[in-house]
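Predict the 3D structure for this chain.
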Amino acid sequence: MAVGIRIKIPNLDQAAFEKLEGHIDPAGNPPDGLIFHSSGPIDGGWGVIDFWQSREQFDRFGQERIGPAMASLGVTSAPNIEEFEVHEHFPR
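Done. Predicted structure below.
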């Protein structure tokens, strides 16, 4: 079952997010199970909304790529991650 993932990263701006995304490279090396990704500025940081085929695929991507990229860039703000059930989604 597909899941939605909402991530809030405090104290992160667009420049820092773009560096982080450059290390993770989701466009050049798409993660297994990602259905949809979007991000943008939120009050006090940066927000991400993703849809994944499963929570396990998101967790694996986080452990293998997001966490190491954040550590290598010195990002110390702990992200707030919330999962929500996806009733339906439509492919592009």
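Strands lie at 3-10, 34-42, 45-52, 80-85.
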